[in-house]
Structures are given as C-alpha cells and as structure tokens.
C-alpha cells in the first residue's frame, strides 16, 4: 500500500458500455495434463475486485497516473503469479506518436501493442507475438486526464505457474498485522535467511542515506515500495512452502502486507520518530486544539437525530480505548521488538486500529438504538 501520510489524488471511475463477446478460442486455459486443456470460462469481474488492478493502484500508482491505457488481466488468469515490476510495466501504455491504433509501454518504450477492438496484438519488444481478447473497458478520470482500463483474458507477456493449489503443503499466512509476530513468522524458515539479510542491508542503506526533502515524497514512497517488493519476490522465489501458501490473489495480498509491515517496522524510527514527527508537530497541535475545543460538546449539538443524540461518551469507551492504540509515539522501543500487541506502529497497523474503531462506533450506535427501541416497546 502507499504510505498513508502521503496524499493520493482522488479517482473517479466511469464504466463504459463497451462489452465485447468472448472468443473462446483466444482464452488461455490452464492445463490439467500435458495436452489436456481445462475448460473454464472467465466470468466478468468488478475492477475494484481485480487483483492486478488493486496491486497497481496500491504499489505502482505513479506509473498508473502516467499511462493512458492500462491492460488488466483477469484475476483467474494470473493465479499463483508474483507480480513483478516488469510485469506491471508491460501492461501500462501511452499512445504511439507514430501510428494510429498503436501504443507503446509507458516505461518500457520498446514494447508496442496494436488495438483493434476487441483484440490486442503484441507487435514489438515482447518475447513472442500474442493475441489477447478484451473482455470489457472502463474509464478512470484523474482530474482532467482520462485513463482507459482494458480488462483482458490473459497476460500480454509471460504465463502464471502451471500448478494447482494444494492444502497439504501449505501454511496459513497470519491475517493480523503485528510487527514483532510478522518478523517472527519470516524467521521461522531457514530458506528466508538470505532474503532477510538482503532486506536488512537495503533498509540500512536507506536509513543511512535518507533525508527528508520537501516535494520528493513520491520518490521516497517508490524507494520504500521497491525495498519491500523485492523482499516479497525473493522470499517467494526461494521458499517453496510459502509459494504453496500464496496461490490466490488474497493470499498474495496477505503475504505482501506482512512483508510490507516488517519493512515499515524497520523504517519506523528513521521515517517517523526522527523525521516526520517533528515536521508534523504543528499540525498535530492544531488537531489537539480542535479536539479540546469540542471535547465537551454533546451529540445533540451536532444536530444528530434522536435517540442517537442522547448517547454519552460512556457509550463509546471501547472505541476510545481502541483508538488510543495508534498513539505509540511515547513508546521508544523498536516496533519489531515490542512485546505489546496493542500498540500500532506501522501504517497497516494504524489502519487496522482505525477500522476497528469505526466498527466499534457503529456497533455501539446499533446496540443503543436497538435497546432504546426495546425499552420503549416494553
């Protein structure tokens, strides 16, 4: 994910009515044997649920913004695939300045495709010529810029691993993010030793050279993303057991978040404690003053409807206690060394706390309204 303390521009999406018939002869099908195809049609999917789209928006947002056409492979067509920087860049394009209907890759200029709806053909710079079917088209608007999203039935280059998911040789990736336990999980495997050593070297190089320069936030974000994406790829490439545990998009996401959380815990002191905390002190003080000014206001003063307007601070004590977990700045221990599972240090941990807080607020309101109704009916 992109670091939450950096602003990301808003996005408006407009779905096109363009929908193209499926050409079954062009759909790449996984193999069950040497020559026997597995007959499986690709069902339409929402773009916000597509693993490739979510990955590029989260980890390659600047590349996305620079592109005019982005090809989005169907989630089922990339199961088990580690999405590398090269794969992402191979699917982001700008119009060719030379030929109508042709597009060249935004970063890898040597790669060129031709669009002839509903077909995309790779014509230059790819390992092989490939014909891909466009399943649907949407448009995304970034301010005044329009970006086409083309949902395609297979990768423009490369193929996912030809294996099937097996629960016999896999483990469960921890679903809850915690700096210390996430690092302990990675340290469980001897196969990860070299990858973790490389990660620590990359982190040390970053901390030795990092200096905050206003206006270069994007560069810093991309550098951090490169560190944890490289660690994520090398760990999976060298650890067969973790490969077997990351076959679906959701499992890949969970493991990527685990690696990101470990990296951000290593960088917490350098980025937050030693740099951003002092730079953002004035904003923090301003927010504190607002909180104090409104601390004695009741819900009825906010024009909240009855009976919710009658709820007191006591009704939200659990949510308040939970939200205090984000205030880990007074704890001077490194996140990955902390024995407390309550404090939230990294961006992912803080986001989880905010979500829990909102859930508790919603639950408190629901329970209050329900008990109020039952009291009146009695």
Provide key terms for this protein.
7-stranded mixed β-barrel; about 15% strand; about 375 residues
Structure description:
The chain has 378 residues and is of the alpha+beta class. It has 11 helices and 8 strands. It has helices at residues 51-59, 61-66, 85-89, 179-187, 193-209, 217-238, 240-245, 249-279, 281-293, 317-323, 347-377; strands spanning 12-19, 69-73, 92-95, 102-105, 112-116, 119-124, 131-142, 145-152. Strands 2-3-4-5-6-7-8 form a 7-stranded mixed beta barrel. A hairpin with a 6-residue loop joins β3 and β4. α6 (217-238) packs antiparallel against α8 (249-279). The longest helix has 31 residues, at 249-279. The radius of gyration is 24 Å and the shape is globular.
Q: Which value, in Å, is the CA radius of gyration? A: 24 Å
Number of helices: 11
Round the mean pLDDT to the nearest integer and report it. 83
For the biggest sheet, the summary is: 7 strands, mixed, barrel
SS-based class: alpha+beta
Q: What is the succession of H and E elements?
A: EHHEHEEEEEEHHHHHHHH
Shape: globular
Indicate the percent of residues in helices.
40-55%
The tally of beta strands, per DSSP, is 8
Strand and helix layout:
Elements: E1 12-19, H1 51-59, H2 61-66, E2 69-73, H3 85-89, E3 92-95, E4 102-105, E5 112-116, E6 119-124, E7 131-142, E8 145-152, H4 179-187, H5 193-209, H6 217-238, H7 240-245, H8 249-279, H9 281-293, H10 317-323, H11 347-377
Parallel strand pairs: 2-8
Antiparallel strand pairs: 1-7, 2-3, 3-4, 4-5, 5-6, 6-7, 7-8
Helix pairs in contact: 4-8, 5-6, 5-8, 6-8, 10-11
